[in-house]
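One-letter codes give the sequence; the integers encode the fold. A sample entry reads:
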Amino acid sequence: MNYYSIKYKVLLFVMAGILVSAISGWLANASAQEAPGYRNYSALTKVLKQMADQHSDLARLKSIGQTAEGREIWLLTLANQKGTPPDQRPGILVAANFEGDHLIGSELTLRVADYLLRSYPDNETVKRDMDDYVFYLIPRINPDGAEKMFHAPVTGSKTNNDAFDGDHDGRLDEDGPEDLNGDGFISVMRVKDVRGLYMIDPDHPELMKKADPSKGEEGRYSLYWEGLDNDHDGFYNEDPRGGTDLNRNFQHAYPYYQEDAGKNMVSEPESRALMDWVVANRNISMILTFGESDNLITPPNPKGQFKSDRTLDLIRFADASNAEASKVGMISTGRRGYGRYGRFFMMGSFSGGQNQSSGRSRRPARKAATTVNTKDLPYFTKISKQYKKLTGITTPPVIREPEGAFFQYAYFQYGVPAFCTPGWGLVLPADSSRGKRRASNPMMMKKMPARGQIRSSSPDGVDAQFLKYLKAKQPDGFVDWTSYMHPDLGEVEIGGFSPMVIANPPVAQLDKLGEAHGKFVAWLPTLNAKIHIAEFEATNPGGGLYRIKAEIENTGYLPTSTAHGVLARSVKPTMVQLQVDPDRILSGNSKTNFFRALEGSGGRQKYEWLIRGKRGDRIELKVVSQKAGSDHAILKLK
């Protein structure tokens, strides 16, 4: 049946053409020498190969694995190849684009690489970094998922493309989205419904809020993802193509039973490839990830807790329409509904035990640590302060609470300082009038949310902030609500936030953000622990005996291991070894000694040996630290 007037069809076609044109510009691909937009896999591969070819003395490119669809996961290694072999130096790992829609992470990583390469050797800091350290850059962990952002309709999916039975009905990826209004995006449908939970936000008519009956508010709308009920189970787009959210797939605070977390920890070829490589490269001393959580714009609080979610209510409300679909598998018997159970045949159960369809194991009784060790907090605070100074970012965009994220594994299990940032932020117009009203009313101040918490239904919520940002920076980032005659739901309106802008800033901001993050990454090695033999001397008390004394100093800012690294025993102890035959040592310390950690900023460890020797003997002392480099010294007995 034709539900459109000819006039409406023409208008819709024109609007769709304008928006698709905007998508093409936003995702423009260009050569490395130009100012490109967001790059697909082919363009990203091209620029990486150009960097390796043009800077063969500093750059090495290799693949650490392949995705399910056969795309390479590229690793670009940057270091001056002369001197200490790069794999024996402390390393900084930068990894990005875990979430498929977070293309900004890839672009920032490429620009960080460009900054380091073009700054060497003229920039003194970068020269020292490249001579003494090694940078590992993985710009796109999830190439398959990212590629979906370059093909309409764009959904903003975070997962890879591994087939998954999202609604547990025995079929894979059978109910994906449809671009009903033809604008190239998948946004939200709202439909008038007397049983609905939502209402139009009176303060921001573009937005929706959950009705609060205690305030006399009535729900008049239901919300769904734009699309059709392909499998006739009463849900919309509950089983799209893909997959696993790779930044939910790592082995710390793993979110058991969440449908996007994978069948089990590190279940995906992408996450497995990264883990295999990281475990084989224990010289990594710091890790920076670009992703959709944050501990740099807002550092952990005094209790070591990460900032809570800053999610969009409109997205959360649409997701809620499919929440029940993932709890039990169903095959429709023909009745259609509003996302509620009609007449269905159940394929599973509501039991709290193991989910037979997903293969997930029972949740462990003891939860993993999720707060930063209080002894490590000052380092996170200092690094956050410098990050904000260099980037100018003070208000994060949409972020989510980390669960099974790689940077959590990196700190809690791998034992190194690890950071995550979306890489951009919201620049909001000042609202001085509202601030004055709050300042003059102590009762209103008391009602303000605590730091890291934002009331989802208030004008100060994330949706309102993001809408204000879009109006100022990307007016086309919010799709205006337009009518559509839906075959199942009747008349609906389609609109909401474009999935493009939720995770990524305008292309015009990329170069400035890239330069700032290049400076930040170049600054990180200046903090690294650095082992140094501060004193090494011998005295001769006579009788063929020599007393050897040494002091080992950490001249860097960071300790040789984080406090949590010591607790988790994930960082190898530093070795101090006197290069003599053990039989020559009469008393004092052993030939080989270890210490777990040495504080930074001049922390010292003393050693003393009484050995047999003779004039002219050359005695060597060797110190090797997994994260802080190595040093050796030689003295001649007199």
User: Anything to note?
Assistant: Residues 6-26 form the longest helix (21 residues).
